[in-house]
Amino acid sequence: MNPSFTSEQIEKLIPVLTEKQKQEIILFHQVYEKYENIFSRKKTDHLKGHPVFGKLSSNIPKEVSQNNDRLSFALQHDAIIHNNWKPYIEYHVKKGIGYAKMGIDFKSWFDLNVMMKHYITPFLHREYNNSEAFLSSLNGMTRFLDFAMAITAEAYLQEKKGVILKDHEEIKKLNEELEQKVINRTAALQKSNDLFFYLFDFNPAIIIISQTNDDKIVKVNDTFLQLFGFSSRDDVVGKTFQELNILSHPEQRNDIAQQLKDKITLENYESEVRNKNGSPVWLSSTYKKIDFNSTACIFSVSIDITERKKIEEQLKLVNRELEAFSYSVSHDLHAPLRVIKGIAHILNKKYASKLDADGISMLDLIMDNAKKMGDLITSLLEFSKLGLKELTTSEIDMTSLVLQIIKEQEQDLRLDEIEFTVHVLPAAKADKILIGQVWFNLISNAIKYSKHTLKRRIEIGSFYEDMLVVYYVKDNGAGFDMAKYEQLFGVFHRLHTQEEFEGTGIGLANVKRIINHHGGTVWATSTLDEGACFYFSLPGEPGSLHIT
Q1: How far apart are CA 410 and CA 396, in angstroms?
Q2: Tens-digit pLDDT profile for residues 419-452
Q3: Parallel/antiparallel/unpaired status of strands 428-431 and 456-465
């Protein structure tokens, strides 16, 4: 321990907690422990972008930084769970002394404390919802993080004091500066209310505060007045949205209120409204429950997406026309192809005996390529139909669906030579037929591209990442060259020859289109001759998923 801090001083810093306070901190720690990897990444990202910590963290090797994070978490766990606070306090005393020696100011690590609260709070809410446990865990988080910051600050100040005491005049000057900062801070706080409303009124986004109980508008900004065509706030304040006649779909206000019963914030809610003249306006809004002037209110910030909606509709129209054109062309190609196949069949049946070996070889070539052309056209037709199909979503038992697809393939292939590992998969809300095609393509590819492997293994599983469920199919087959990755999901793009592995080159393009249509993403990783792993993500709620 640094000589500026004695064992007795460390003992005095150990917190005296009531049983309730201990339980509150434990509730917080349980969530922190569950998502510790996520918080660690968020903290690392924050430090990299911070004007002070960014320069320092760039000089610290990644392995050292990870070891520090693991040590910090282990000490935190030991303090909270086993009531062994002394090592944890010594660790933060050491940090505070280090900050002082490096010249880092208070605000920099206060920012870090605020950032951690900001990132952790949504996870506490996710685990405990709006229950009493959520409020308790929130109290526990605040108490614990503020305690850690207070220890660091105590060590920081004592270290600074040891330097400053060398010169009494410097101490006096520092106190004067601190007093002036307090005065300035007090003045800034007094002006904060004015600043808030200045930012409110002149914000380019549309900002509204309305009462929760009766939907009456309390305050709007200038952008609202300009967009909706009202001349003054007197025309708006005290009235409901229904009375202002700006709702194209009045039921949406009830939908917003209903959704906010179960959550504090509602983000990216799109709605169609109309201005005073009746012209349609599309908004993308974020709603948050607040207390304003001791009244329960809804605070909303919206942006005008009318032009974006127009462009989206134009793109949909163009895509439909392109898909219809592609469908028509593919369909029309079948007619001349049938003629070619028919003539080739007649030649083979009636005149094969009159042809020499070269003639028969050329006739076989015509028939083989006609079949391949037919397969390509059929695949192109299926690809075109995907864009025209509307999604019919339902709850899908993904595990049962995968096992069913594997069983169906057993009828055509000898799958007893393959070691399948199928983990329990979380359910998904999607189009069952289309997702079935995704699984069929990925599993078929895994079977096909591992056929030259002596001991074939295929693993199917899932994991949860950034509010998305990620499913995967992994094999130990031929793999592919990652340098050619950009071609992987293209139409008719193949990374292996037809002689090596049969196929049309349309399957992965279908997979990509289906998953994109569901709002997800598809990607892959591979090492040539060692196998490949294909992933696709679908939107999902963490509380409703069984993750393996």
Answers
A1: 22
A2: 899 999 999 998 888 898 899 889 988 988 888 8
A3: unpaired
Q: Write out pLDDT tens, residues 245-275.
A: 888 888 888 888 888 888 888 888 888 888 8
DSSP string computed for 437-483: HHHHHHHHHHHHHTTT-SSEEEEEEEEEETTEEEEEEEE-S----GG
Q: Which amino acid is at 465?
A: E
- Spatial separation of the C-alpha atoms in residues 146 and 21, rounded to whole Å: 14
**SS3 state of residue 540:** coil
For residue 420, CA distances in Å to 312, 403, 412, 449 come to: 43, 10, 16, 15
Strands 295-304 and 265-274: unpaired
pLDDT in tens, 11-61: 888 888 899 988 988 988 898 888 888 888 887 777 777 777 767 667 777
Query: Backbone phi, then psi, for 186, in 5-degree steps?
Result: -60, -45
> How are strands ordered across the β-sheet holding 531-539?
418-422, 456-465, 468-475, 531-539, 522-527
Supply 457's token pair.
């293994």
Three-state SS string across 173-210, please?
A: HHHHHHHHHHHHHHHHHHHHHHHHHHHHHCCCCEEEEE
In whole angstroms, give the CA distance from residue 207 to residue 285: 9
DSSP state string for 506-518: -HHHHHHHHHHHT
**Could you tell me if 206 and 284 are in contact, meaning their C-beta atoms sit under 8 angstroms apart?**
no
% of residues, the chain, pLDDT over 90? 11
Using CB atoms within 10 Å of the CB of residue 224, give its burial: 0 to 12 exposed, 13 to 18 middle, 19+ buried: buried
List Cβ neighbours of 411 (8 Å cut-off, separation of 6 or more): none
User: What pairs with residue 209 in β-bridges?
Assistant: 219, 299
| Residue 452 structure tokens | 């030259």
Please give the radius of gyration of the chain, using alpha carbons only, rounded to the nearest integer: 33
Query: In this structure, are residues 246 and 236 in contact, taking their beta carbons and an 8 Å threshold?
Result: no
Give yes or no for residue 317 having a pLDDT over 60. yes
Closest CA to 529 of 505, 503, 496, 498: 496
Q: Which tokens sit at 30?
A: 């349980």
Calpha distance 116→47 (Å, rounded): 11
3 state DSSP class of 17:
coil
Distance, in Å, from the CA atom of 363 to the CA atom of 355, rounded to the nearest integer, reads 9
